[in-house]
User: Which sequence fits this backbone?
């Protein structure tokens, strides 16, 4: 009797073990099926990176790769300015997009655009910032570093447009925003690259003096300086440089978000504007 009971008990334990194993495999199969379904769903949804910007009001930055088309810009050591400027501008675009900004390029291929058209693109888009990228040259091969240009005094047509847009009093208009943007860019890019800091300078280049938005022109390095040129050719340095520019743009935009005309003021007296200058080799 006891022997029969023992046999029955062993059989029951085997059956119970089998049922538990079957339940475990069933649960595992269900979990794997669920994971496969979730994986397929996630692959079908594009990756989204949440940024600190209001998605409905993400800042727009207009980027301008200097020169283009028949206007090659400076040439030194086998490097043409228009090509390197476009490479850097495309890298900068990617940096800004990764931070949640919107970006508009004046050119994304080798084409020529008049200077006034470049400035007009930024003005019509009401961009938070306009940045034009260039490469420098010097009569001395020892000169190196980065410098950023801005202007407080816009062209007469730009001043009139700003008066109408912001309901400013008649007279001369002064715009401090470009100087603030230049300071931010120069600080961050020099920290990121450890390049020689040649400072910010006021110059009436057409792309900054004709723009109605905060605008700067940054000279990213010297084609005529062999060590700097070698660095500018390398992807790692290009990433450092454009990351620094992006950080400067971001700091400026965040500080002035919601205050687009802060820094613009009308002055007494008839409106005046400086003579526009063409970009040229930097003096020592």
Assistant:
């Amino acid at each position: 009797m006891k022997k029969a009971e023992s046999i029955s008990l062993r059989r029951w334990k085997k059956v119970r073990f089998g049922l538990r194993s079957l339940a475990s495999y069933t649960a595992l199969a269900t979990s794997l099926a669920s994971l496969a379904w979730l994986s397929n769903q996630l692959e079908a949804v594009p990756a989204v990176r949440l940024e600190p910007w209001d998605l409905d009001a993400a800042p727009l930055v207009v980027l301008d790769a200097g020169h283009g088309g028949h206007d090659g810009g400076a040439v030194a050591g086998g490097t043409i300015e228009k090509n390197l400027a476009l490479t850097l501008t495309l890298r900068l675009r990617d940096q800004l997009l990764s931070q949640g900004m919107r970006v508009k390029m004046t050119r994304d291929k080798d084409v020529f655009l008049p200077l006034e058209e470049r400035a007009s693109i930024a003005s019509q888009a009401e961009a938070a910032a306009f940045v034009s990228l260039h490469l420098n040259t010097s009569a001395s091969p020892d000169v190196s570093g980065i410098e950023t240009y801005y202007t407080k005094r816009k062209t007469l047509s730009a001043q009139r447009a700003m008066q109408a847009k912001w309901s400013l009093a008649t007279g001369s208009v002064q715009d401090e925003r470009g100087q603030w943007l230049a300071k931010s860019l120069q600080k961050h890019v020099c920290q990121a690259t450890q390049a020689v800091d040649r400072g910010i300078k006021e110059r009436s280049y057409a792309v900054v003096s004709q723009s109605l938005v905060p605008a700067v022109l940054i000279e990213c390095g010297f084609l005529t300086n062999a060590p700097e040129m070698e660095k500018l050719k390398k992807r790692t340095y290009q990433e450092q440089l454009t990351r620094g520019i992006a950080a400067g743009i971001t700091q400026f935009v965040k500080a002035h978000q919601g205050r687009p005309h802060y820094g613009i003021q009308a002055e007494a007296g008839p409106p005046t504007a400086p003579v526009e200058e063409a970009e040229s080799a930097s003096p020592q």
